[in-house]
Design brief:
The complex is a heterodimer of chains A (about 150) and B (about 260).
Chain A (H helix, E strand, L loop, with lengths): L4 H19 L4 E8 L7 E7 L15 E6 L4 E8 L2 E10 L8 E2 L3 E2 L2 E4 L12 H4 L1 E3 L3 E7 L5
Chain B lengths: L7 H34 L8 H32 L4 E2 L7 H25 L3 H12 L14 H8 L1 H8 L2 E2 H17 L9 H4 L10 H10 L10 H5 L8 H6 L10
Parallel strand pairs in B: 1-2
Helix pairs in contact in B: 1-2, 1-7, 2-5, 3-7
The chains are: A alpha+beta (about 150), B mainly alpha (about 260).
Amino acid sequence: MRVGAGALAGIGAGVAASLASAAAPHNGQVVIAVTDIRSTKGVVRACMTMRADIFPKCIKDPAAFRAVVPASATVEIRFAGVKPGQYAIALLHDENGNGKADRAMGVMPTEGYGFSRDAPVKMAPPKFKDAVFALGEGASRVTIKMRYFL
Amino acid sequence: MLPAETPVLLALLFVSITVTAIVALRYALISGLFAYVTGKVRPGIYEGRGKQITREVRWSLLAAAIYGTPAGIVLWGWEHRGWTLLTADWSALPLWYHLLSLLIYLFVQDTCFYWSHRWMHRPKWFRIAHAVHHESRPPTAWTAMSFHPIEALTGAAVVPLLVFLVPIHVAMLGLVLTVATLMGVTNHMGWEMFPRWLVHSPLGNWLITASHHERHHEEYRCNYGLYFRFWDRVCGTDKGLSARIVAEAGHGPQVPAR
């Protein structure tokens, strides 16, 4: 039976498309609940990245998820359309709104910071591997405590 | 800071060297600063003392390694193994405790120093451990860390041990070390920088400054304290202030003009 080239191409394309949509995961979303914010001054800056090499300086990752919300006692930040994978979140309570993590005498943080998995901060920001967690399809909720050195 | 796969011994070597360098730099900057100021306010008092100062610097650099190594190891342990009661979280301890922790650390350090210092003035231990420090006659701003290694060990052990026993925020610990460094240098530099109303006051009767410590370097078997005159007074070893330092500071009894 004679089948038109166009029809064949159409069937081929349809088969290819259904194969592709069966393999692609649905994107998830994450809600970040931030606790222990000490004031309503300034904003909370959040960023979520998959890149270990630039963490926590998410500004260097053009693909990072970013949000800026006014500071209040508790804050919720939602990222949607997130491809499942390994992510780490860095938060800054930018109380003076200057976009930077201010430090006294160049070393001591004067503004709040928080990291996924409450990754510890002692003498330096945490490594990606201490903050990384897995995001799957569907909705996830993480809670991050804001911490203050001074 | 260090890559996670660094073998532990190598990591400890690295942090020991790093913190030693920091202590040595701190010594050079602070002693250097006050030596410079001394040159301005008491010109010439360090004249011709180059050999003494060279000795003081050499011993101090060795002492920097003895102070820096346990400090580096303990900081590594805090960062990587969760050691100590250090915290980087201001809200982990109440505000009043932050102040109290500062006072506890200074008082414990002062207590350990008073008693080990008195011990090191017994003839045998003086010869072995403390004569080096008293070679500085009179002391200079560079004398602050000029210790024989055995004496350095007695001093270097205190804070690294204390952080396992008494909780303290890292910034307050920094303040403890700042007080230790500043008082250590200024108590030796050969002149009194604090004003008369402080030194010769009820508060000054309990605080050690250059006027008090110089007398120890003049007479040896008295005035053994570090920050506070508490143990000297309680134990009867407080012999008052150096007459020379008091006079040179113009802090002597005010004689009315005729």
